[in-house]
Amino acid sequence: MAFIKLNNVIVNTNFIAAVRLEGQNQAGEESVSLLIAIPAVTFSPIANSPNSSYQYEWLEFTGTSAGALKDYFSSFNNVLDLLPPRHHCNNLCGE
Question: Which residues constitute the domain of residue 27?
Fold first, then answer.
């Protein structure tokens, strides 16, 4: 698990579902967006176990925060760290 601090926002990388590196906001500034998967646990009266689902929300960053995110996600080592452990060898080692 890793955390990314951007100004006053700290993002747990375990909850990043997608990254949009190339974008512009309505003011025309370059932006980077993160799709965050927010776990939501609901309890069903029929089942004894809770059902897990996710809510998704885009967070948009501009300025120096966008530059820092672009640098972070452009690094092969950082992107590799975000892959779930079972995918490391399956996709990259040819196993």
Answer: 3-92
